[in-house]
Specification:
mainly alpha
Length: 222
């Protein structure tokens, strides 16, 4: 089991490195969207601090959806997905390994870049730390939720358009609690409750999303 999981994880990371232009496009999109707001709204610190949580989280959500269409598309095209369905290991665990590799390639760079972008909005170091914590909890949940949409649309024409339509409504709670944690920290109310809710959403997605993805892949390939 562990050998299979590590093999899929390493394989997907190697493929992401070979296709790093696709991975970098999501990161560049994130940086560009976030950077446009200070340029468009002006240098007023109070205004920038007020909009920072929402801007950064919306940009992260949109950026994370860009790479979801490729999560299972390559495996479907070369027949790897059929081999995963026939493998003796549970499909849900194999899917979870792919989702983990997807987050390391796409979600982790967004989380690492967020503190630098927060400086553009004159955020305090403590608020930047909360922002980073929310993204560290929220981006894996976004990858897990997005994988369900990618599994449902694998092999379909126009999947790149359908995946965001399926994923964005499901990801709204993550967006609300993620941005709300930073707002609460800025207002001095403490972000513990929002971080706990984000952790609960991550745990729920971690338990349910791989099973849902496995069922969706079986339906899509039947």
């Amino acid at each position: 089991m562990w050998r299979a999981l590590k093999g899929i994880f390493a394989r997907d990371l190697a493929l992401a490195w070979r296709q790093r232009a696709d991975v970098l496009s999501s990161l560049v999109f994130f940086v560009m969207v976030v950077s446009l707001f200070p340029l468009g709204l002006g240098p007023e610190p109070a205004t920038l601090r007020a909009i920072a949580p929402g801007v950064l989280w919306v940009a992260a959500l949109l950026s994370s959806t860009l790479a979801l269409g490729r999560l299972f598309a390559g495996d479907h095209a070369d027949g790897t997905l059929e081999q995963m369905l026939l493998a003796p290991q549970p499909l849900a665990f194999l899917v979870l390994s792919k989702i983990a590799a997807h987050w390391v390639a796409a979600g982790l760079p967004l989380t690492a870049m967020a503190p630098l972008l927060g400086l553009q909005f004159d955020m305090a170091p403590a608020d930047i730390a909360v922002l980073t914590a929310t993204l560290a909890l929220g981006t894996p949940a976004l990858s897990l939720i997005g994988a369900i949409g990618a599994a449902l649309t694998v092999g379909l024409r126009g999947a790149a358009v359908l995946v965001p339509l399926l994923v964005l409504p499901l990801a709204i709670p993550v967006l609300i609690f993620g941005a709300g944690a930073v707002d609460a920290a800025e207002a001095g109310r403490g972000a513990g409750a929002h971080l706990s809710l984000l952790g609960g959403l991550l745990a729920f997605a971690l338990a349910g999303a791989p099973l849902a993805c496995a069922a969706a892949l079986r339906i899509s390939l039947d």
